[in-house]
Design a protein that fits this description.
This protein has 346 residues and is an alpha/beta fold. The chain has 2 domains: 241 residues, Dihydropteroate synthase-like (TIM Barrel, Alpha-Beta Barrel), CATH 3.20.20.20; 93 residues, Sulfite Reductase Hemoprotein, domain 1. The chain is built from 12 helices and 15 strands. The radius of gyration is 23 Å and the shape is elongated.
């Protein structure tokens, strides 16, 4: 049975997938950081992580914590003192690497603090920080990542910590998927899933969708982050789309055909507007924007609402049956109005 780990108000291991991101502001600037977290929360973020580089960052967590509603994770490297300070200032979870936090005494101090405050920890491995022993034994491989991660888990378990979340990330999608599949077969701890250093928006979304999506369809993953060189809010939008594509989150499913030579109206523009209008809704609906009336209502007959276009007129349909014909010039206005009505229905 999957172990349950509570990160503030967020529960990991309960069968739902939590979306998270990381701020890009200096954590010591509490106002800017809290404002960015507010934007992330509005987009649908459920857990947020901040970088803790020094004592100013660690102490700012208290101020930030009082201004936000999301569970807050402190990301710390090289300093047991900062990990303890972050927890004492209200962090809901810490992300540390036992291998670079110091010796056994330093690790014990972090473990004692975590237990005293009932705060979980995320540990793991990625290809950029593999310990020498694992790299020499297995090279840059799934086995090396998993052995390293489980070694970090054992380091905390030794001191009585078992509220643990694990990650094994690589920038290679196949390696990431292989490592998480192996890890999932060996542990019941919740898994934080993502493709690290995925890149800029376009390539990063593709890599993340393939890697995270493949794992979610295998039933692997309890919390996800889409790592993009981009405004972190875009990470949330991408994560929500991945979850919806895997049928793991509610919301409006907007389907639209790729168009072809039969399309004689601007269905692409309308499809984009429908997605923008419906993206924030949590209603389980299917809305179709189809290029032509030749096969539009048939291909999207399971849609709650749909439109198929033509040069002179467009047809609105529900359940595959045409309910209304309207002039092509009025199609966008009328259809968006119908979408709004549908979103408001009880």
């Amino acid at each position: 049975m999957k172990k349950i780990v509570n990160v503030g108000s967020a529960v990991l291991g309960d069968g739902t997938i939590k979306i998270q991101s990381m701020t890009t502001t200096p954590t010591c600037d509490a106002e800017k950081t809290a404002a960015q977290i507010g934007r992330l929360a509005a987009a649908g973020c459920e857990i947020v992580r901040v970088a803790v580089r020094d004592e100013a960052d660690a102490r700012a967590i208290r101020t930030i914590r009082d201004k936000i509603s999301l569970p807050l994770v402190a990301d710390i490297h090289f300093s047991a003192k900062l990990a303890v300070l972050a927890v004492e200032n209200g962090a809901d979870k810490v992300r540390v690497n036992p291998g670079n936090i110091g010796g056994e005494n330093q690790l014990r101090s972090v473990a004692d603090c975590l237990r005293a405050h009932h705060v979980p920890v995320r540990v793991g491995a990625n290809t950029g920080s593999l310990e020498k022993e694992h790299y020499q034994k297995y090279g840059k491989s799934a086995k090396a990542l998993v052995e390293s991660a489980l070694g970090n888990v054992a380091a905390f378990e030794k001191f009585g910590v078992d509220d643990i979340v694990i990650s094994v990330k690589a920038s290679s999608v196949p390696l990431t998927v292989e490592a998480y599949r192996l890890l999932a077969s060996l542990t019941d701890y919740p898994l934080h899933v993502g493709v690290t250093e995925a890149g800029t928006h376009e390539s990063g979304v593709v890599k993340s969708a393939i890697g995270i999506g493949a794992l979610l369809l295998d039933g692997i993953g309890d919390t996800i982050r889409v790592s993009l060189t981009e405004d972190p809010v875009e990470e949330i939008y991408a994560a929500k789309r991945i979850l919806r594509a895997c049928n793991l989150a509610g919301g409006v499913d907007v389907v639209s055909c790729p168009t072809c030579g039969r399309c004689e109206w601007d269905s692409m523009k309308l499809a984009q507007k429908v997605e923008e209008l419906t993206f924030a809704s949590k209603k389980n609906l299917k809305i179709a924007v189809m290029g032509c009336v030749v096969n539009g209502p048939g291909e999207a007959k399971d849609a709650d609402l749909g439109i198929a276009g033509g040069k002179e007129y467009c047809a609105l349909f529900r359940g595959g049956a045409v309910t209304q014909k309207i002039a092509a010039a009025d199609a966008e206005r009328v259809f968006l109005g119908e979408v709004e009505k549908l979103l408001k229905e009880e």
